Amino acid sequence: MTDRTLHIVGGGLAGSEAAWQAAQAGLNVVIHEMRPKVGTFAHQTGKLAEMVCSNSFRSDDSEQNAVGLLHWEMRAAGGLIMEMADAYRLPAGGALAVDREGFSQGVTDRLRQHPNISVETSEITSLPEDGHWIIATGPLTSDALGAAIRAETGSQALAFFDAIAPIVHADSVDLSKAWFQSRYDKGDTEAERTAYLNCPMDRDQYEAFIDALLAAEKTEFHEGETAGYFDGCLPIEVMAERGRETLRHGPMKPVGLTNPHAPDVKPYAVVQLRRDNKLGTLYNIVGFQTKMKYGAQKSVFTMIPGLENARFARLGGIHRNTFLNSPTLLDDQLRLRAKPHIRFAGQITGVEGYVESAAMGLLAGRLAAAQIMGKPLPAVPDTTATGALVTHITGGAEAKTFQPMNVNFGLFPPVTGLKGGRRGRRDRYKAYTDRAKADWAAWLDAEASGL
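Above: the chain's sequence. Below: its structure in token form.
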């Protein structure tokens, strides 16, 4: 009888979702997670699906936003990550943010309770020669496994640096200066419309803040490492180095907000903090990933009005992310061309973001189940968010300049007959999402009839 066991290396969001999908399809699944036996700089627990950077899954708008569409597709496919995100959801305006501890515990409990899933606390240090495998070790792949991957592919793994934003105790924020409001009052409930804490700056405060950022002592890179940052997660000081106004047009933009303490005064810049846990006791500083040293972080961030006496539950950090040159190394089934019994999933494939990583786990789990059961799946339509992503990383991207990619409508085949430019954007995005939902539903139906 054919071995129907699937081994998954890595218990992050991608590995967890892949395990769930394969187990639900009837496979026996073994998750190999090295934590807590072997730790990483960024992780704090041995739980599955631990979130180490932000607690946000970004926009939940499935009609006008590509990541919101990806949420919709994963929900339609019975995704565990989205089920748990909904269960541990926090108010965040139009975004989907979660209580990260509850979310991780929820995923861990569901997987450990599944009769087809077992979890082994072990580090895999080489590429297996046989069996069925998915490698979903994410951006913090261990040195030993990373070396084995590089040796097999005959090429240097690409790397960039991903920075972690600091977290503040909510009761240490001065509410005589800060206020609660989501940008443009987005959200269907009062909790969502007041999901963010806002700290305003006038021009002099902003200029002094930029000066301090530029002068602050930064973390040094190890010898041989290069700082090839992903633009979607730049350290705040790197953004400041690109121009003094960069932050004011990025994470510190003052639009869509009115300061109730001074309603007639338009802030020159605004620092936003987003709720980080269900209790509302912790807030992370939005877009403030950093590689400043800890002492410098406290000095610089307490210059922000409202944060003068802030207590930090966690300061920012920086770590090295590793990912494959997937257009040259992976086929359209996410299999390693040189060893097709091994699939890759998650951030190591060159997608960026929690949702995108989990989506690639969902797809890898389903593809592996179909192959093992001898019932091949039809190709995922590139008109869907999932299909657009996998098409991009496995061949749509230019291999020589391949960089991590968030899902976005630029990856989708155009819809003909619609107005271009900004004025036609709403109709165009709605056409993209309507088409994607229909095509994704049809793909799921075809898959169900095949399996």
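The longest helix spans residues 425-450.
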